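Run log // design_07
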Protein backbone atom coordinates (compact mmCIF):
# COMPACT_ATOMS: atom_id res chain seq x y z
CA UNK A 1 0.00 0.00 0.00
CA UNK A 2 1.25 3.43 -0.83
CA UNK A 3 0.18 6.12 1.55
CA UNK A 4 0.05 9.59 0.14
CA UNK A 5 0.52 12.76 2.05
CA UNK A 6 -1.39 15.93 1.75
CA UNK A 7 0.01 18.16 -0.83
CA UNK A 8 -1.09 21.31 -2.59
CA UNK A 9 -1.20 19.68 -5.95
CA UNK A 10 -0.30 16.07 -6.52
CA UNK A 11 1.18 15.23 -9.83
CA UNK A 12 1.59 11.51 -9.59
CA UNK A 13 3.93 9.62 -11.78
CA UNK A 14 3.31 5.89 -11.57
CA UNK A 15 6.26 3.76 -12.46
CA UNK A 16 7.59 0.51 -11.07
CA UNK A 17 4.89 0.46 -8.42
CA UNK A 18 6.31 3.63 -6.96
CA UNK A 19 4.29 6.77 -6.62
CA UNK A 20 6.06 10.06 -6.35
CA UNK A 21 6.48 13.32 -8.12
CA UNK A 22 7.42 16.84 -7.29
CA UNK A 23 4.94 19.63 -7.08
CA UNK A 24 4.38 21.63 -10.23
CA UNK A 25 4.18 24.74 -8.05
CA UNK A 26 7.85 24.37 -7.27
CA UNK A 27 9.18 25.40 -10.65
CA UNK A 28 11.32 23.25 -12.86
CA UNK A 29 13.01 21.53 -9.97
CA UNK A 30 11.83 17.98 -9.42
CA UNK A 31 12.44 15.86 -6.38
CA UNK A 32 11.53 12.25 -5.82
CA UNK A 33 11.23 10.92 -2.33
CA UNK A 34 9.84 7.64 -1.18
CA UNK A 35 10.11 6.62 2.41
CA UNK A 36 9.67 3.03 3.50
CA UNK A 37 6.77 2.22 5.79
CA UNK A 38 9.25 0.94 8.38
CA UNK A 39 11.16 4.23 8.54
CA UNK A 40 7.95 6.25 8.64
CA UNK A 41 6.63 4.15 11.54
CA UNK A 42 9.92 4.53 13.41
CA UNK A 43 9.64 8.31 13.05
CA UNK A 44 6.00 8.33 14.18
CA UNK A 45 6.73 6.09 17.17
CA UNK A 46 9.37 8.51 18.38
CA UNK A 47 7.41 11.70 17.69
CA UNK A 48 4.32 10.31 19.43
CA UNK A 49 6.36 9.31 22.47
CA UNK A 50 7.49 12.92 22.75
CA UNK A 51 3.94 14.31 22.89
CA UNK A 52 2.80 16.80 24.05
CA UNK A 53 6.21 18.23 23.25
CA UNK A 54 7.72 18.56 19.81
CA UNK A 55 9.88 15.64 18.79
CA UNK A 56 13.02 16.05 16.72
CA UNK A 57 15.31 13.71 14.83
CA UNK A 58 17.22 13.30 11.60
CA UNK A 59 17.29 10.92 8.69
CA UNK A 60 20.66 9.92 7.37
CA UNK A 61 21.62 7.93 4.31
CA UNK A 62 24.81 6.60 2.75
CA UNK A 63 26.60 9.61 1.31
CA UNK A 64 27.04 7.90 -2.02
CA UNK A 65 23.34 7.30 -2.32
CA UNK A 66 21.84 10.01 -4.47
CA UNK A 67 18.28 8.95 -3.79
CA UNK A 68 16.42 8.49 -0.58
CA UNK A 69 16.91 4.77 -0.18
CA UNK A 70 18.40 3.32 2.99
CA UNK A 71 17.21 6.14 5.19
CA UNK A 72 18.06 5.70 8.84
CA UNK A 73 16.22 7.61 11.57
CA UNK A 74 18.12 8.95 14.56
CA UNK A 75 15.98 10.44 17.35
CA UNK A 76 17.37 13.47 19.15
CA UNK A 77 16.55 15.06 22.50
CA UNK A 78 14.41 18.15 22.55
CA UNK A 79 15.64 20.52 25.25
CA UNK A 80 12.99 23.20 24.71
CA UNK A 81 11.04 23.95 27.86
CA UNK A 82 7.73 24.62 26.12
CA UNK A 83 5.59 22.55 23.81
CA UNK A 84 5.81 24.69 20.70
CA UNK A 85 9.52 24.61 19.95
CA UNK A 86 12.44 22.30 19.73
CA UNK A 87 16.03 22.87 20.62
CA UNK A 88 18.85 20.38 20.25
CA UNK A 89 21.89 20.52 22.51
CA UNK A 90 24.75 21.78 20.31
CA UNK A 91 26.99 19.07 21.81
CA UNK A 92 24.52 16.36 20.75
CA UNK A 93 24.34 17.93 17.30
CA UNK A 94 28.09 18.02 16.88
CA UNK A 95 28.51 14.43 18.04
CA UNK A 96 25.76 13.40 15.61
CA UNK A 97 27.59 15.06 12.71
CA UNK A 98 30.86 13.39 13.74
CA UNK A 99 29.12 10.04 13.99
CA UNK A 100 27.61 10.42 10.52
CA UNK A 101 30.99 11.39 9.11
CA UNK A 102 32.62 8.41 10.76
CA UNK A 103 30.03 6.09 9.26
CA UNK A 104 30.24 7.75 5.85
CA UNK A 105 26.62 8.84 6.06
CA UNK A 106 25.12 12.17 5.19
CA UNK A 107 22.30 14.15 6.68
CA UNK A 108 19.29 13.90 4.39
CA UNK A 109 16.44 15.22 6.45
CA UNK A 110 15.76 17.05 9.67
CA UNK A 111 12.46 15.94 11.16
CA UNK A 112 10.30 17.59 13.79
CA UNK A 113 6.71 17.41 14.86
CA UNK A 114 4.00 20.00 15.27
CA UNK A 115 1.96 18.49 18.10
CA UNK A 116 -0.97 20.90 17.82
CA UNK A 117 -0.48 22.64 14.50
CA UNK A 118 -0.61 21.86 10.80
CA UNK A 119 2.58 20.67 9.08
CA UNK A 120 3.04 24.10 7.48
CA UNK A 121 6.55 25.50 7.83
CA UNK A 122 6.71 28.26 10.41
CA UNK A 123 8.73 31.45 10.27
CA UNK A 124 10.89 30.09 13.07
CA UNK A 125 11.44 26.82 11.20
CA UNK A 126 12.73 28.84 8.25
CA UNK A 127 14.97 31.04 10.36
CA UNK A 128 16.60 28.11 12.13
CA UNK A 129 17.16 25.83 9.18
CA UNK A 130 20.81 26.00 8.19
CA UNK A 131 21.28 22.85 6.15
CA UNK A 132 20.62 23.58 2.47
CA UNK A 133 21.65 20.05 1.45
CA UNK A 134 19.06 18.45 3.68
CA UNK A 135 15.28 18.49 3.53
CA UNK A 136 13.00 19.52 6.32
CA UNK A 137 10.22 17.09 7.22
CA UNK A 138 7.43 18.39 9.43
CA UNK A 139 4.92 15.94 10.86
CA UNK A 140 1.66 17.25 12.27
CA UNK A 141 0.30 15.17 15.14
CA UNK A 142 -2.73 17.38 15.66
CA UNK A 143 -4.64 14.16 15.03
CA UNK A 144 -2.14 11.51 16.11
CA UNK A 145 -4.20 8.75 14.49
CA UNK A 146 -3.87 10.58 11.18
CA UNK A 147 -0.42 12.18 11.03
CA UNK A 148 0.35 14.55 8.18
CA UNK A 149 3.83 14.95 6.81
CA UNK A 150 5.17 17.75 4.64
CA UNK A 151 8.59 17.95 3.13
CA UNK A 152 10.46 21.16 2.35
CA UNK A 153 13.78 22.04 0.80
CA UNK A 154 15.58 25.33 0.79
CA UNK A 155 15.43 27.06 -2.55
CA UNK A 156 17.18 30.40 -2.82
CA UNK A 157 15.90 32.65 -0.07
CA UNK A 158 12.80 30.55 0.56
CA UNK A 159 11.58 27.00 0.77
CA UNK A 160 10.00 24.82 -1.84
CA UNK A 161 7.56 22.16 -0.87
CA UNK A 162 8.20 18.63 -2.10
CA UNK A 163 5.84 15.72 -2.19
CA UNK A 164 6.62 12.32 -0.85
CA UNK A 165 5.04 8.95 -0.38
CA UNK A 166 5.39 6.06 2.03
CA UNK A 167 5.74 2.66 0.48
CA UNK A 168 6.17 -0.81 1.95
ZN1 LIG B 1 8.12 23.67 13.18
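design_07 sequence
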Amino acid sequence: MVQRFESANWNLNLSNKQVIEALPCCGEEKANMIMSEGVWQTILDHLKRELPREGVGVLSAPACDKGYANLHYIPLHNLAADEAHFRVDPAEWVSLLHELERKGECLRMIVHSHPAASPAISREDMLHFHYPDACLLIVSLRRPENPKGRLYKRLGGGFERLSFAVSP
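The first helix runs from residue 37 to 49.
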